[in-house]
C-alpha cells in the first residue's frame, strides 16, 4: 500500500482518484458513487440527529463538536459540527492548540460505495492490524489539515482513540479528493503527542542576518 503521508489532509491537495471512476465508461460498468452528494448529506444528517440524541441522553462515548472555524458565528446546521465516537479515553490533561503539531495514528475512509462495502480506505498511517506496540505515528501541523480533522484534534487528549465523522463542508466539499466530491469522511484517530510552541528565541547571526528559532516541547501525557 502506498504511503501518502497525510497529503490528502493538507491545504494543497492532489487528486489521486483516477482509478476510482465516478461515472460509467461503458453501459456495462456500474457507477462507483451513485447519487453521492445526496447519499452523503442524508447520511450525515441522520448521524448527527442520532448522536445528538445519544449525547442528550447522557452517552459518554459520543461527542458533538462545534467547528473551531466558526469563531463567534452561531452553529445552526448539522454540517457545523463534527461527531466523535470515543473508542478509548486517554489520560492526558491538555489538548493540542491550532498552532501545535501532533503525532497521530489514523485511518480514513469514505462511506460504502459500489466496489467498497466497508468504504474506500483512502489513507492510513499503519500497516496490517491496529497495534500500538508496532505502529509508528505521523507528525503534522494541526493548522495544515481540513477543518473537521483540526476540530477533532483540538478536543482530544493524549491516548484518546476516536472514530471521527466529518461532513464534506468541513472536509473537501466539491473537490474530488479523496475519491469523489461531497464525501463524508470517517477517521479512526489516536492522539500520541503534540508539540507546544513557546517562543521565538534569537539564534546566532548568519551572514550578518539575525536568525530566529522556535522553542517548545513535546507533550505525551
Automatic annotation (TrEMBL):
Q: Where is the PPIase FKBP-type domain?
A: 99-195
InterPro entries annotated for this entry?
A: PPIase_dom_sf, PPIase_FKBP_dom
The terms under GO molecular function for this entry are:
peptidyl-prolyl cis-trans isomerase activity
Q: Which UniProt keywords apply?
A: Isomerase, Rotamase, Signal
Instruction: Indicate whether Hydrolase appears among the record's keywords.
Output: no
Under Enzyme Commission nomenclature, its number is: 5.2.1.8
Q: Where is the signal peptide?
A: 1-17
Recorded catalytic reaction(s): these are:
[protein]-peptidylproline (omega=180) = [protein]-peptidylproline (omega=0)
Which Pfam families does this one have?
FKBP_C (PF00254)
Is Isomerase given among the entry's keywords?
yes
Protein family? Belongs to the FKBP-type PPIase family.
Record's protein name:
Peptidyl-prolyl cis-trans isomerase
Amino acid at each position: 500500500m502506498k504511503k501518502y503521508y497525510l497529503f490528502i489532509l493538507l491545504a494543497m491537495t492532489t487528486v489521486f482518484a483516477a482509478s476510482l471512476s465516478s461515472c460509467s465508461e461503458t453501459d456495462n460498468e456500474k457507477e462507483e458513487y451513485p447519487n453521492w452528494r445526496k447519499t452523503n448529506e442524508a447520511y450525515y444528517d441522520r448521524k448527527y440527529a442520532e448522536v445528538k440524541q445519544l449525547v442528550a441522553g447522557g452517552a459518554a462515548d459520543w461527542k458533538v463538536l462545534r467547528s473551531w472555524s466558526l469563531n463567534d458565528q452561531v452553529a445552526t446546521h448539522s454540517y457545523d459540527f463534527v461527531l466523535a465516537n470515543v473508542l478509548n479515553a486517554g489520560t492526558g490533561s491538555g489538548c493540542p492548540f491550532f498552532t501545535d503539531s501532533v503525532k497521530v495514528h489514523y485511518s480514513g475512509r469514505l462511506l460504502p460505495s459500489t466496489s467498497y462495502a466497508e468504504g474506500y480506505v483512502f489513507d492510513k498511517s499503519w500497516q496490517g492490524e491496529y497495534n500500538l506496540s508496532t505502529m509508528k505515528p505521523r507528525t503534522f501541523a494541526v493548522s495544515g489539515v481540513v477543518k473537521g480533522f483540526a476540530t477533532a484534534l483540538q478536543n482530544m487528549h493524549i491516548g484518546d482513540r476516536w472514530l471521527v465523522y466529518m461532513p464534506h463542508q468541513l472536509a473537501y466539499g466539491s473537490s474530488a479528493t479523496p475519491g469523489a466530491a461531497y464525501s463524508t469522511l470517517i477517521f479512526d484517530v489516536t492522539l500520541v503527542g503534540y508539540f507546544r510552541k513557546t517562543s521565538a528565541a534569537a539564534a546566532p547571526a548568519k551572514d550578518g542576518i539575525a536568525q530566529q528559532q522556535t522553542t517548545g516541547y513535546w507533550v505525551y501525557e
